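Inputs:
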Amino acid sequence: MRSSDLTSEEGTQAKGLVVHGHRRKWSPPSPYPLKVGLRGMVGVLRRTANGTAVAPRNPDSLRADKIAFGLGLGSALPTTEGQVDVLIVGAGPAGLMLANWLSRTGLSTRIVDKRGTKIFNGQADGLQCRTLEIFDSFDFAHRVWRESNHMLEICLWNPDENGQIRRSDRIPDTIPGISRFQQVVLHQGRIERFFLDSIKKHSDIDVERGVLPTAFDFDDSKAADFNDYPITVTLRTLSEEDAMPQQQYQHQKTADGQSIASDGLFRSNLTADDTDDLVRAAETNARADQVESVKAKFLVGCDGAHSWVRQQLGFKLEGDSTDYIWGVLDIIPVTDFPDIRQRCAIHSASAGSVMVIPRENKLVRLYIQLQATEHAQGGGKADRSRITPDMILQSAQRILHPYKLTYSYCDWWTAYQIGQRVGDQFSLHERVFLAGDAVHTHSPKAGQGMNVSMQDTYNLGWKLAHVLKGYSEGSLLKTYQSERRRIARDLIEFDHRFSRLFSGRPAKDVMDEEGVSMEEFKNAFEKGNEFASGIAVNYGASVIVAKEGDSAEQGDGTDVRTQESHRVVSKPQLATAIPVGKRMPSFKVLNQSDARPWHLQELLKSNGRWRIIVFAGQLTAPQNMQRMKQLGARLGAPSSFLHQYTPAGQPIDSVIEILTIHAGPRTSLELLDLPEAFHPYSEQQGWDYWKVFVDDQSYHEGHGQAYMNYGIDPSRGASLIIRPDQYVSWVGEVDDYDEMARFFSGFMKPQTAGKEVDAA
Ligand SMILES: Cc1cc2nc3c(=O)[nH]c(=O)nc-3n(C[C@H](O)[C@H](O)[C@H](O)COP(=O)(O)OP(=O)(O)OC[C@H]3O[C@@H](n4cnc5c(N)ncnc54)[C@H](O)[C@@H]3O)c2cc1C
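Outputs:
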């Protein structure tokens, strides 16, 4: 059975272990002398340039018990051998986002997960507006939008002078106008379903369930050649039983007594990490002869907070030594609390705080911080047997007093332990990468976990594809760590500030210095809203972001500078409301040829293309039309960078697409007045009518006022370069062909041998 054949009826737990069909496509079994991992060793040997094996960076990852459990499997063990461009370990949100990107590229990709099924309910649920924009660029935001609960208002509840809670404020949940989407909630299981459907639609990539890596080898001498396979991973298959750890079914109260509710404890990190046990089980179970040695060009560890891949690399999570235990309860509430269908942050005078998140299907989630434990002191795992849904409920009842709260239906509950930590490195030689919870962990309050994890691999996916396809130099991949580790650090800082304010006791009065001022809390909530929306992400200067300043300072310290001869700096004054480094904001424009209104972002699909958006200004002004003719002539010339970066035989817009938005009126221009570069022609399909747009009044949806909202002067215009992930790389003059060419020459590889690129 293919994993993606699992029914979309997520209410029913899938029973069978999903064994991957994908492996069939790889080489037939052959006796393959395993170099590492032969005896079940869990660990890494890294190979140096002269071929000598060296010890792992982190000796802890080769603990004796891990090395010693060899089972005497001889070198004649039947082993399948395979090769793959990208091997992804972990099919949570981060792994699935990456598989989804790669499903659109035709590159060979495999994704394995130690669990026998996806998750079906609970776990992360908040989706930022930026995440919805990304989903829309992959064409499945509408499914989330329809099923999710939309969160529009946040109510703040605090103690009054008598110590009784009362509503003290209401603020919008998403800053109005920040995005065409607002924050919503839908459980992680559904998000994973949408990814699986999208991946299936575009490729034959299957999540290989019940499969885990048991050994890893990295050959340093092959790291610099992106056509080579420096990574070797041994994969083994788990038994059905091992791949499906038992959930505890309990704690659902019904009129006729107890019946089943799923808990998330089997996935919770309060349960000891079972990876080592699973590795042993994979060695001994009936499928132990299913050993596969996979050679990969890239390996991406999306394997969660306990990341096996991270351990193999010897990379560390750095940060606070305190772990917080969070209790999470998804119930249909029976209550007289008036704001139960709003997102609420409730601080009681002395019983603690609760976050209320209204959800889909009448559900409400309660988040309560239960206790703190010092991680540094012996790993400090809390005693999970003490944490029950009743305990979480009773805490909520104390905080909500005098309002009543109870339930008869509990959909899911968990308790999980979380610290605020960031990985010290996100990549080994830009060939092995870590993403998601594998490199950052923090509290669930601001609903960031799943979002930031998916956005890590959204950042990485197109970069891997461009390097693998030979469009870009490998140096492009350095920007992953520079951009995403910086974001992770910002996130942890935000979480620190927010946690103190959320979990602290409210101040009794202005003299109470230890208490949290509720005014301060409200201000932080409002300011934090932009960060929490995901829209605040602002990537620093680098080879792919042309702005002033020091790239190491603006990133995580990684060197992602452009060589001086290729350096281009934007002219932000030409588009004052389009910050370079942030994602392209969206306003409505009309198609020149058929008058249909589009949100600009809808034109920026995640299909791996760079885009140049030419805001041509008013084309009724002869000098503006003249500039377009000149720019069109240079872009259209066979020696232009556009032609040089497009592989032979592919459409001219397949690597860099040109979109034009003129300032109107629509009726003042005919499409064919513009040079062909702005509406390419093909013998089979005629002119391309979906490249030229106008900022004008639509018949039914008003006027997008794009020029005004983007801060672009219609008499002057501007040109923009937009990355394949919708972030703004460069802003310059409409016809500054030379600057555009210089920008791309900093990291792109000409596809046409023997011809000089017409760059400055
Ligand atoms: C119990 C629990 C409750 C949570 N509740 C909330 C919440 O209420 N709100 C919130 O915002 N966030 C919550 N989170 C965090 C949120 O789920 C994560 O931030 C998010 O899922 C991160 O995505 P990821 O893909 O990086 O990692 P994960 O979702 O953890 O996915 C990792 C995947 O890798 C697989 N894997 C792990 N090790 C291996 C291995 N060695 N080999 C093969 N596969 C492996 C796992 O089976 C899993 O499918 C919760 C997390 C947990 C564990």
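Remarks. Residues 89-95, 112-115, 123-126, 188, 212-213, 264, 267-269, 275, 302-304, 308, 328, 414, 416, 436-437, 444, 447, 449-450, 453 surround flavin-adenine dinucleotide (CB under 6 Å). The domain at 568-745 is CATH 3.40.30.20 (Glutaredoxin).
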